[in-house]
Amino acid sequence: MPVAMLLLVAMLLLLGGNACAGAASAADSTDDPSPPPASEHHPTAPNLPDSDQRTEPLPHESPDGPSPPASHTPGGHATMKPDRIPPQDYAADAVARVEVTAHVDVAVHWDTMRQYHFKSLVDTTAGGTGVFVNPSGGLVTSAEAVELNQERVTVYAVNQAWHRAAGVPLPENPYERMRVRDDPKLDAAVNSCYQPNSPKAECAVFITPEVRVHPYTAAEKPKPLKAVVMSTSGGVAVLSVAAPGKTATVALAADPQADKTWTSAGWPTTPAATSRLATVQGRYDRQGEVSDQDIDKLRRQLGTGMPGSVLVNDRGAVTGMLSPADRSVDVLRPAQITAALDKSGTQAERGPGDSSMTNGLALYAKHEYRHAAPWLHSAADDTGQGATAVRYHKAAHASTGKPNDMSDEADAHTGHDASGNGTNWALFGPLIGLTVLAVAGGVLFVLKRRRQGPASETGPESPPPSAPDPTAPTATHVAGPPAGKRPPLTVTPPSEPENHEQRATDRPDSHQEDADRPAAQGTYCGNCGALLSPGDRFCFSCGTAFHGP
After folding, report:
1. SS3 209
2. Rounded CA gap, 312 and 337, in Å?
3. Cβ-based neighbour number of residue 257 at 10 Å
4. Are strands 203-214 and 310-312 parallel, antiparallel or unpaired?
5. CA angle 84, 87, 89 (to 5 degrees)
6. CA-to-CA distance for 5 and 287, rounded, in angstroms?
7. What is the C-alpha end-to-end distance of the chain, expressed in Å?
8. pLDDT greater than 70 at residue 2
């Protein structure tokens, strides 16, 4: 009866799975679906669109998403080729502006001592671009981007201090040293201040450098993040950024290949949610180098953001980093970046938001906006509201359920919802039913074996030695003498003490015992192997003991 009920439940699940699948596919909501599970458990990203299928890039400048196409299928939805995601959009949320500042303290001794504190003076000749390579705040940039021009900030701070203390006129160029020609004593006092960290009688200047990082985020009123330079080697500076949460990261590709295209990504100014990366497109030559013509173009387009700007391939992976040196520009290879990371003890790894972003952009490129929205929502949450993820999520959400949304066609073709929302009962219903059938078959097989098995497999248990019962059956059944024949009586010498453990240890294996051997020495019957309790003196038949006086 229980087996029949299990079979009935299995059949109901098989039939109900298809009905639930139909109901799930019929539900269509334009509301933003909830984010998928944790990114480390996300399924493998769908195949990214082929960049050669479409020559025009995605119209990503519009926050409203792509315009609905003109052609439609009989079902009412569009037939469209996948768009090509601009390469910089894969990496934009991991690209940050690097800024070098200094806190300068100036003490002026003139008439009386006066102290001045200049907080966060920005060195406009330093700084550049950096990219996060670790979601916990590991960032790489060029060594030039974090070099503070101490003389420049010192001159500025000293000029301001003496102007306030003694009314010395400021020069037209605030970074030019003062000269007080009509007062030699004052002129000497002022010019003795232009040496930082070397106190003099008239002046003392102390500088505390600081590196700040401005990530590309859509968060309201984002604050710059403090960073510490961990190491500088091979032209690469490795920074540890005090990020409040996880950040988007870039992947490090293999060394650039000849004739492969690249796209630059850098921030000449502090990024805002509505700004775009300064980009230049080019192609590596046959030696895998960047041409001089492209270097000049990069200088003009990137400006102060050139140091540390990266070159990425079509999937947003870094193939090079720009490192200006004097009048030349070196392109650092990914292997050089990896070597610098190893020396600093920093490991390059991707974060939870990166896989969500990859999945979301892949689905967005195929116009599956309902499927892409939750992935992009998760990417934005996992990267501190990365501006690119937020922008794509808004566009996907706005296009969900519209005629240009190809999510329904994808579900009908693949049989599942790529967004990860809801349960695919068309698959899980039959699987549950098959599982129940397998369990029922196993139970039926076990019951059948129990009914057909020999009685000797389930013999009664023998009593424990501490509570002997001469009439109880033994647990071990060994073939005894033929029926009707009585074995000879064997007497255990009363002078030999009983020792259960020693006798059991010294007793040979049962298959080596001789049938004519005398009865067991105080523990086992030598004829049939039956267990004898302490005090039993005779074994006059198989399994039957006799207690002597």
Report:
1. strand
2. 14
3. 11
4. unpaired
5. 95
6. 73
7. 58
8. no
Alpha-carbon distance 525 to 235, whole Å? Answer: 89
Q: CA triplet 271, 274, 276: central angle to 5 degrees?
A: 60
Cβ atoms within 10 Å, residue 395: 23
Residue 503 CB-density burial (10 A; 0-12 exposed, 13-18 middle, 19+ buried):
middle
CA distance 320 to 324: 13
If you average pLDDT over every residue of the chain, what do you get? 75
What is the reported pTM? 0.65
The 10 Å Cβ neighbour count of residue 214 is: 20
Among all chains, which residue has been given the structure tokens 């998928």?
36
Q: What is the DSSP string of 374-430?
A: HHHHHHHHHTTSBHHHHHHHHHHHHHTTSTT--HHHHHHHHSS-TT--S--HHHHHH
Q: Distance between CA atoms of 142 and 147, rounded to whole angstroms?
A: 10
How many other CB atoms sit within 10 Å of the CB of residue 314? 18
Helix/strand/coil for 212:
strand
Could you give the CA distance from residue 269 to residue 266 in angstroms, rounded to a whole number?
A: 9
Give the model confidence (pLDDT) of 315-330 as tens digits.
999 999 999 977 789 9
Closest C-alpha to 319, from 304, 337, 306, 301: 337
Give dist(CA 140, CA 309) in Å, integer: 10
Beta bridge partners of 317: none
CA distances from 47 to 66, 360, 361, 397, 420 (A): 21, 11, 11, 21, 16
Coil, strand or helix at 298: helix
pLDDT tens digits along 97-116? 999 999 999 999 988 889 99
Query: In which order are the strands placed within the sheet that holds 328-332?
Result: 281-283, 261-265, 310-312, 318-325, 328-332
Instruction: DSSP letter for 75, please.
Output: T
Give 462-506 pLDDT, tens digit per residue. Answer: 444 444 443 444 433 434 434 444 444 443 344 444 443 333 333
Q: What tens digit of pLDDT does each residue of 269-280 get?
A: 999 999 999 999
Q: Average the pLDDT over each of 252-261, 289-298, 489-498 and give the range with the smallest value.
A: 489-498
Write out the two tokens for 239: 């920074």
Residue 238 to residue 341: CA distance in whole angstroms: 7
DSSP string for residues in 93-115: GGEEEEEEEEEEEEEEEESEEEE
529 closest CA partner among 461, 494, 539: 539
Under DSSP, is residue 270 helix (H, G, I), strand (E, B) or coil? coil
Confirm if 21 and 429 have CB atoms less than 8 A apart.
yes
Residue with tokens 């979301």: 360
Nearest to 13 by CA among 441, 436, 444: 436
